[in-house]
Amino acid sequence: MAQGDSFAASVADWCHAVDGATEAIFKESVQELVAEADRLLTQMVYEAPASPNYRRTGFLRSSVRVSRTSIPLADRPQGVPDADYLAEITVVIAGAELGETLYVGYTANYAGFVHFGTSRMAGRPWVQMVAQRWPAIVAAKEAELKGRLGL
């Protein structure tokens, strides 16, 4: 059994023993993934030394969306940052059903240029870096839930 398979199996075994644990871990893990992406984007872009080729408005950060149907498209031109962007995400995650796929994406049309870089700017691959942490995020949420339940 591969390492990922044994991790998934151990989480699944424990979740089946506690009613509602699977759904709680799923939703809290997605919420944490979005929060970590937000923190990493802030560190890599908004707190990094200023670049003459990039205006820091907060629009990229607030363009993150979660969808239950498809990956959000990066097709929104620069606009005004949405101050309540995380509240909308919380509502979508709360309404998700166990077994559903949730898609997380940035809708600013320049998100790919920031993530992958250009000939004038180094990439800041915050999405890839956070996605690689998914198993650790789920494991941390499992441990946190066990602690809250006193198990």
Automatic annotation (TrEMBL):
<protein>
    <submittedName>
        <fullName>HK97 gp10 family phage protein</fullName>
    </submittedName>
</protein>
